[in-house]
Design a protein that fits this description.
Layout lengths: L1 E6 L7 H15 L3 E8 L2 E3 L4 H6 L2 E6 L5 H6 L4 E6 H4 L10 H4 L1 E2 L2 H8 L8 H31 L14 H29 L4 H11 L2 H4 L6 H19 L9 H42 L2 H17 L4 H12 L7 H9 L2 H12 L6 H5 L1 H8 L8 H6 L1 H22 L2 E2 L14 E2 L1 H47 L1
Parallel strand pairs: 1-2, 1-4, 4-5
Antiparallel strand pairs: 2-3, 5-6, 7-8
């Protein structure tokens, strides 16, 4: 068969490309021809041409977020199989079975209807991750520039700000970098809103989220931070979603999305933000920051264990993303130690699983051993998802090992005072100045990995022995029943 596919996920980083690779590998093993278009954080790659779509027998859409109206029109008249991107890896062995029964033929009317959905399908978390995905380039680029400026100062270059004369090169680089941190929150709010209410929600959400973080204008000690992005992004998004259903007649209807909705939404939420939401959320953020800065060590270590365990538990799933979002959201407030937990724990499950296959190969299948090197390499760049196939094969021992070791690594990270400025390239973050102190980072990672590997081998050995004993008991029972008959 000739097949074309599209993959995307809320963050556009891991699942998008892992599912594409898995689809390609499985299709080739079955003798099919396939081309997969990825809609990731880097934009659309491996774009499907009209000729390729026309020649295809089936279209597979593995989606974590809504595709555009133009995408639906592209596949009009084709047999299309839709599946959640989070389920694709779990169903990869059977995904090509009986495609005809799974497929729906897209007609022109259906394409129009689906393409004009007012709200992207998905949970609140999918909308939040759409905002995070848009904010990532701001904080990554900004974090790298701040790190470079700090490295240049350490190498002896002068640092002079504008108040003391002509600004130095290092100050300029650092200031540009901090712009990324300044605008990541308004961008996050804008993309959360547009994920719900489409383009008319973007500008109002950006402006009111920026206002909520301007503590000088609001007269608060702190801006609303990520809390403002979440509350205002969701609020504006759903407000616009229902506003778009208003019917104004043929003369005024074209102005609804381009003029009326942005104006009314900005007016309503601008006033609400200035007088109510901004000061309220700024006060809440002040309280949270005060709590995090004054929390007793015992409570902080307990919270660090919980965050580390959540990050390792479902390997890129909703629990992982909740913990990740909490840590990531503190970056714009200059709190970097919690995000360092992400930088350590996210590496561990896939790397530990891959390394364990070399230490105890008898515990793993041929396919798991074949994927080990890829799991280690991809895992080393902070993509936890390569651990999923190992966890699906043996859920209880693998998830238990990952969760316990992730929690302990989270405690070690906080205990050692490791900080992470921004998302980066995983194990190499200390080399580009994003993670410090480098020696404590590598020590926390080494201890966490060693513990993870030890627990995987120990728990999976016990699990395998019990499974083997259960099979022998079943065989013995079968033989006894046969003799009785």
């Amino acid at each position: 068969m000739k097949i074309v596919a599209v993959t995307n996920c809320p963050a556009g980083i891991a699942h998008t490309y892992m599912v594409a690779e898995a689809l390609e590998r499985k299709a080739v093993s079955l003798g099919h021809t396939i081309k997969v278009e990825t809609q990731g954080a880097s934009g659309v790659e491996n774009h499907l041409t009209p000729a390729e779509i026309k020649a295809a027998d089936y279209v597979i859409l593995a989606l974590g977020r809504t595709i555009s109206e133009d995408d639906y029109f592209r596949f009009s008249g084709k047999k299309v199989v839709e599946i959640k991107v989070s389920e694709a890896l779990k169903q990869i062995e059977t995904i090509f079975d009986d495609l005809d029964a799974k497929a729906t033929t897209f007609g022109n009317d259906q394409a129009v209807k689906m393409g004009k959905q007012e709200t992207p399908s998905g949970s609140v978390m999918s909308h939040l991750m759409a905002g995070v995905s848009a904010a990532l380039p701001f904080v990554i680029g900004g974090g790298l520039l701040v790190a470079i400026a700090n490295m240049l100062v350490q190498f002896g270059m002068p640092y002079t700000d504008m108040a003391n004369g002509d600004p130095s090169f290092t100050w300029i680089v650092e200031s540009i970098g901090y712009l990324g941190f300044k605008f990541m929150i308004p961008i996050m709010g804008a993309y959360i809103a547009s994920s719900i209410g489409d383009k008319p929600a973007f500008a109002p959400a950006f402006l009111v989220t920026y206002l909520a973080n301007d503590n000088t204008m609001l007269g608060t000690q702190s801006g609303a931070g990520f809390l403002g992005a979440v509350v205002l992004g969701l609020g504006v998004g759903y407000f616009v979603k229902y506003f778009r259903k208003v019917k104004l007649g043929k003369a005024l209807q074209p102005l609804l999305g381009s003029m009326i909705i942005p104006f009314v939404t900005l007016f309503v939420f601008g006033i609400l933000t200035y007088y109510v939401l901004g000061p309220l959320m700024g006060g809440m953020m002040d309280g949270m920051l005060h709590f995090l800065n004054t929390i007793p060590p015992s409570m902080k270590f307990g919270a660090a264990f919980l965050v580390g365990a959540m990050l390792a538990f479902d390997m890129g799933g909703p629990i992982n993303k909740t913990a990740w979002f909490f840590c990531f959201a503190l970056l714009d407030k200059g709190i970097y130690d919690w995000y360092a937990i992400v930088g350590v724990v996210a590496l561990m499950p896939p790397m530990a699983a891959g390394i364990s296959t070399f230490i105890a190969p008898r515990l793993f299948t041929k396919q798991e051993k074949g994927a080990a090197i890829s799991s280690i390499i991809v895992g080393a760049t902070v993509a936890t998802e390569p651990a999923i196939p190992y966890a699906l094969a043996a859920p209880l021992p693998m998830i238990t090992a990952n969760t316990i070791s992730g929690g302990i690594a989270g405690v070690l990270t906080i205990m050692f005072g490791v900080e992470r400025l921004a998302p980066g390239i995983g194990i190499f973050d200390p080399l580009i100045g994003l993670m410090s102190p480098w020696y404590w980072f590598y020590l926390a990672l080494f201890i966490g990995l060693a513990l993870n590997i030890f627990l995987i081998i120990t728990l999976k050995s016990i699990w395998a022995k019990r499974k083997e004993a259960k099979l022998k008991d079943e065989e013995r029972l079968t033989e006894t029943t046969g003799d009785s008959i």
